[in-house]
Every structure is written in C-alpha cells, then in structure tokens.
Amino acid sequence: MAPKMKKFKKSSKNPIYDTNWCDMPPEIKVKCIGKMEFKERLLLRCTAKAERSLVDSQKIEFQNGEFWADDEDIVFKLNRGKNSNFLKSPKNINVAVGFLKYIKKVGVFENLKLCFGDLFTDNEQFNTDDGLFAAKKVEIEQCEMDNVVPSILWEIEDGVESIKINVDRKVFRQFDELLEISNVFQVQNVPYWHLQNYGESDSLHKVAKMWIETNAKVGFTFQASIYKEGSFAAFLEHFTDSIVSKDERRVRIRTKNPDIHILLERGLDEIVETDDIPQFSRLRVIPAEMKKSEYDNNCKEWISIMDPDVYESESESEEEWPEYFGISFDEDEDGDDFDPVDYYTL
C-alpha cells in the first residue's frame, strides 16, 4: 500500500504534499512527469530503473525535430515551443543510436526532418529496433544514398500527413521501391508528398499508376520538381487510352473508379516557362464531376512549397535564412557532460 501523504492547506487548485519523490505513488509521479520538459525527463531517467520505466511510459510532444548526421558530425535538434529547445551533438554513434531509440519510443512530432545518409541506416542496432518515429509531417534529405529513403520510411509510423523528399539532383534508384512500401508505413496512403530536385522523367506516370491500383482518395496530391525533360510526354504516352482532356498545362485521365479522375498540372506562368529547368508538376486525385472552371490557375502557391526561391527577388534570395524552423538554438549549458550513455540506455 502506498504511504499516506500529509496534505497542506493552501489557496491553490492543486494540493501540496509533504513527502519525498521516492514516497509518491506511481500515478502521482506520472502526472509530474507529464509536466516536465525533455531535459528534466532525461535527468530523471538515469536515477533508477523504476523511474526510467515511468518516464518511458509517457509520450512527449515536439513541435519540431531534426536529426542530422554525416561521417564527421551528428546533430539532434528538438523544439517543444518558443522557449523549449534542446540541441546535442553526440560524439559516439552508440550513444546517438540509443538516443534515437528513446525518441522513437516517446516522441510525437508535428514536424520531423531526417538528414543522415547511411550512417544510421547501415547500423544494425538502428535497423533492428522495433520502435517507429511518430510524426505528422516528415522531411527527408541526403537521400541519394542507396537504400536510405526506404530504410528511413520503414522507421516512420503510419498516419503521416505529408512527406517531403529532396534528392538534391543525385541519382535516386529507389523510386520504385518507395512506391511499394507498405505494412508499417504506407506511402500509398499519404495525402500529400513531393519529390524535389528529381533527375528522371518517370515519377508522374508511376505515381498515377500507383493511385489507380490503390484507388486513392480524392484530395491526394503529389508534386515534383524535375531536372529532366520528358515527364509530361511520358505521362501522355502511358495513359493515351485514358485521357479525358488535355492542353498545354494539364492532362486529365480517368481511372478504374468512375467517381475519380487524376489531374496532372504543369507549373507555368509569367515566371516559370515551358523550357525552364527544373520543371514543376502536380498530380491530384479529383472528383470525376469536377469542372474545368474549378481548376486552380495559380501555380505560385504550390510551386513555392517545393522551391520558394523561384518567386523571390535577387535581394530577398541573398537574405540569411533562420538556422532551423525560424528558431535560435543554444547549446546546453552543461556541454558534452550532459550526455551520459545511461540517459539513452533502454
């Protein structure tokens, strides 16, 4: 039986207890943990196994998270709000992997950015971990490495609302595999995703084919910035028998479902022209009864999601951008001493 605690009378909505932390029942500790910031939880985790279990049982929400790594550096940036930032740069790969395992267990992200090449995806401990990242919006960079993007997506929990992938004009051999990922993370069911700086002309017709086979929902959207000519022509060639209408800017095709069509739109206006590279395209699943008068003729908004520099003046382009999500991060005052392996040991 939990020890009886003496309650002080005080003009407060929440009662104040005269007792030590170790004397509190688990249900009270859990409520306290729920109000703790991330650093406080890490400190509590290393005090005892029982406390670690309690901390690990409680999810923690982050507004933004970025995990970046190359052969020389590893950087983790976490943000829970205006004045709640966490920045660490582990020097040991095992500590870094342990930290990621802990984050996958407890973290829930609004925005999650992953930029770590094959440093983690080739790590056996990372790949064999059963935990999954939970996030609404996912952004992936440095995905020119073989198998990196599929490996990362296998680590993402289902239910993601958007994916942004930047291949940085490098060779990307895993596009077909990307479309086939299912089970843990179903890329087929993501309402919005885009492929930035892609170097081939096959993405548009392959995504449309996937949507037809999976009977995608109205509203699903795929966008691409492509550094190779021929995507529009390739789409026409693959769906010649399904074309409902076409002009210089759009192609509309029917699907197996009589209630939905797929609309391909080219990003063309007074700034972005036909012969420009990259070429911008958008695929949408639309209701079959949608009229041409309902089309969106303003491509600036959706192009800017992928490449805001297209519509910026030269002076604006030269301005210094915020380091990360518009937030300034300060190194933890404890420096590397704040990174004992026990914080991340599961």
UniProtKB/TrEMBL annotation:
Short name of one Pfam family for this protein?
A: F-box
Positions of the F-box domain: 21-61
Which residue positions does the secretion signal occupy?
none
Q: Origin, by domain of life?
A: Eukaryota
The protein in question is named: F-box domain-containing protein
Species this protein is from: Caenorhabditis nigoni
Gene name?
Cnig_chr_III.g11850
